Amino acid sequence: MRRRVLDGSLRILLAEGLILPTGLITASVLTHYLGPTKYGLFTLTSMVVMWIEFCITSFFARTTIKLIGEADDWRPWGANIVRMHLLTGCAAALLLWGCSSKLAQLMSEPALTGYLRLLSLDIPVFSLATAHRNILIGMHKYRERALASAGRLMTRLLLMVVLVAWGFSVEGAIWATIGASLFDLSLARLHARAPLWGAFPVETRQIWHFALPLFLAGISLTIFERLDLFMLKALGATAALAGMYGAAQNLTIIPALMGGALAPVLLAALTHAIRDGELSLARELARDAIRFSICLLPFAALISGCAPAIVALVVGRTFAPAASFLSLLIFGGFARLLLAVASAALIAANKSGWVLALTAPLVSIAAAAHFVAITRWGATGASWVTTVLSVLAAATSVAMVYTAWNIRPSHMTLARSAVISGFTYLAAVIWPAIGLMLLIKLAAISGLILAAYLGAGEFDKHEISLLSSLVCPKTPESEGLR
Within 13 Å and on the Cβ side, how many CA atoms surround 182? Predict the structure, then answer.
């Protein structure tokens, strides 16, 4: 069972990992053709719609995985969950359409009205696609879930390049987003045809029991993640500066998407293990997931040290000020990855209230801190507030997991990660590289990070053998487990 879960997790992580090449190419194309001002407007538009979409999907996401994973027949739960997504998605789209002019006025950007109304069409489609992908995870159809994610990312890249390069500007980028959601939905429904019509009675109280605290927690975390950009613009920043900051945020989205891929699979695996009475296996999976997240810290240090070169390569020298924001925000991004993994472990242990207690205060604390920091230090202050609060929330979540599961990362893992991160940052700063040499530098230092972990004994022979067999399966048994 552990092997099958690891294999499925690896597939989804690899699929979501396509965000690295597709996201970098997309950001490069958009910044090149749109420029700082229009790119800032597109970033603000996407930010608002992403808030709404994530609020809708977070209401049901982890609840869907847990209920589908525990059910003998997934169709009654699937039918009701899909319908709820459709209704809430349509209602949210209509609400955004009506409020778009007020939001544009708040941002002092009249052009936002049309952009928000157009991108509102994506909300019900994205909501439905996400519902089907969550059902696939609950059914343990990890390969199909990975296929849907890969299809969405590749389609978005293709449409972005074609439409924006052909001169459709911000509208082209928005239509590319909508088209990718439609393709995502079509792929997911091929493998999880949740009934849209007919009567499928279920105990809806179970949905609300799990969904409400997780929904509130999801809203709090989503608002927190983008509150810095919102307050920066509301407190007087220009659209160009918002574009700079938004570019830095977009370059930190990789750990967030990794958390979005790993956390649901972990929740499904833990739910399945607990249902089968395999508590020791559940603890082992939770501990390994947290350790994996901590071991990614040197890669955050690598990106931080290479921030100026990465910004110049991906979005161009025009966005050079974004490097200082990226060097800080990347640590906050990896901290939220750890927070997502720890939250999945808490939810599996029926501690949804703990997740809410952790995330709910973040918005008010961040708002007050951003007001002070942005007023005095501008965008740099915003990046510091987001990063520090993300790290504190992640550390607190790990302490909560220890209380609920009696598991924690070893002191040696923490020490190794810290030491390797320090040397990684120094190497990234000392070794100058631009263009193609930057890619060689990133690959070389990444290889040294892995070698350092292996040399320090972080991974035992069984773990190395297991991971090697998953990446390069050689036996009929491993092939049959795909």
Answer: 9
Q: Which residue type sits at 412?
A: M
pTM score: 0.78
- Residue 18 contacts by C-beta under 8 Å, 6 or more apart in sequence? 149, 150, 153, 154
Question: What confidence tens digit (pLDDT) does each residue in 160-200 have?
Answer: 999 988 888 899 999 999 999 999 999 999 888 887 776 66
Determine contact, residues 148/133, Cβ cutoff 8 Å: yes
Helices (H), 139-203: 142-163, 169-191
**For residue 65, which amino acid is it?**
I
Please state, in angstroms and as integers, the Cα–Cα distance from residue 354 to each residue in 258, 376, 389, 401, following that order: 23, 34, 17, 10
What is the rounded CA–CA span in Å between residue 361 and residue 366?
8
Cα–Cα dist 237/321, whole Å: 14
Is 202 in a helix, a strand, or coil? coil
Instruction: Write the pLDDT tens digit of every residue in 38-79.
Output: 888 888 888 889 888 877 887 788 888 888 877 777 888 888
Residues 6+ apart with CB under 8 A from 355: 213, 214, 217, 343, 346, 347
Torsion of CA 470, 474, 480, 482, to 10 degrees: 30
Decide: 131 and 82 in contact? Cβ < 8 Å. yes
Query: Residue 258 and residue 265: Cα distance in Å, rounded?
Result: 11
Distances (CA, A) of 449 to 21, 302, 310, 427, 459: 21, 10, 19, 11, 13
CA distance 226 to 307: 20
Residues contacting 21, CB < 8 A, separation 6+: none
In the block, residue with structure tokens 């491993």: 478
Joined tokens for residue 108: 């002092």
Q: Where are the domains of the chain?
A: 2-480
